[in-house]
Amino acid sequence: MALDPNEKPNQPVTKFESMLKTDDVYFFDAEDFEDIIHHYLNNGKISLAKKAIKIGLQQHPESMELKLLDVEVMVFENNLELAEKILDRLQLLDGTNEEIYIQRANIYSKKDNHEAAVALLKKALSLTEESFDIYALLGMEYLFMDDYEQAKVNFMKCVSFDEHDYSSLYNVIYCFEFLEDYEGAIAYLNEYLERNPYCQVAWHQLGKQYFTLKLYEEALAAFDFAIISDDTFLGAYFEKGKVLEKLGRYNEAIENYETTISIDDPTSHAYLRIGKCHEKLANDDLAKFYFYQTVHEDPLLDKGWLAITNFYFKKHKYDRALYYINKAINIDGENAKYWKKCARIHAALEHYDEADFAFKQAVDLGNYELDTWLNWAEVVTQNQEVEAAIQILLQGLEFYPEEAVILYKMAGLYLMANDPVKAQYRFRKALKKDIEMVDIFKEEFPSFYDSVWARNIIESVQKASK
């Protein structure tokens, strides 16, 4: 049965859905349609929003707000050309409606013309006093433009309008972090907490800033206040556990990770952290148990497989370590860290060809750490490829031109390659940079170190330095 046209429904969404299940047609005020459409848009139910817009425009064909909601859906679905045509018509009818400029800004944003979007949003700001949503949109546009200062300012305005707008609060802190202004973030959060002393989100974010600055006691206090404000706040327990790990309080860290498991479903990340704590406590059986729980909970978590790999590597069980690092690589073959670990395992097993290949993969993927070059050169040297080892160290020297350790190793390799001229050049340069590190050369190339050649060069450098 149809509703009385003069009766305003108390639950428009429920009655609208009831109407869809029947052949009856209910009448709704335009404002009710707006509420219904906003409800569906906010819940991601686009098809139902479109049905409500269609029926709403049939009942209220002149409603500017319903037409603008229709445009909003068109923009969302990238039907930009039609949306612009409708906005052109609507602007002729009411050029002072801020929503027209907001939707035009959304269209420009979709086209990656963020400067034009900002200009239109500022125009919208001049037309309305209800500017909360516009500041949020401005903040996002500035983020797209990598203008974190302006983004921060606009998100701060959102928070000043509604101090429970945690999305904007997170964005403010994100901007501080991107700008590496952690002290600024701390000052802002402390000021916010003076007004909202029981805001668990702010305490949590404050703790993370202190953690970044390695102010662990302050971070611990902040996470404690977050937990006092909400004793079911999983993130606070987890972050507190990480702080306690840094402080060497592993049993307390375990308690906090276990709390996250007791409050909600277990997570692989919690199991991983518990396993690492037990490893620090030398509880090997428990560490191994939790590492296996990690990959059981999430077989695609490559960090879990890496943890098991490291566990066996430290125990010198290289075959087992190799099995598990291959698991990690199968999940994330673009991870340079895994290839480097794979190379070290192959080297320990004296699989020099495989180690050479794995080191090359690590470097190709962007791992340029000093020990990568040194260990890679050592592997190919063990494989009797001295010239290749020299070339590897030459590459490493481009990244670490001041590292004496590379020069000492190159001097020894040039001697192995029967090139005393280049060996002398590198050896002299190494001695001048750090003569105290000559023990590296002595350890790796004892016969060369004991030679008259080396002794004469060392004496000449020592005399020149006096």
UniProtKB/TrEMBL annotation:
Organism of derivation: Muriicola marianensis
Swiss-Prot/TrEMBL TPR repeat ranges: 98-131, 132-165, 234-267, 302-335
Metal-binding among keywords: no
Pfam families: TPR_8
Keywords: TPR repeat
Name assigned to this protein: Tetratricopeptide repeat protein
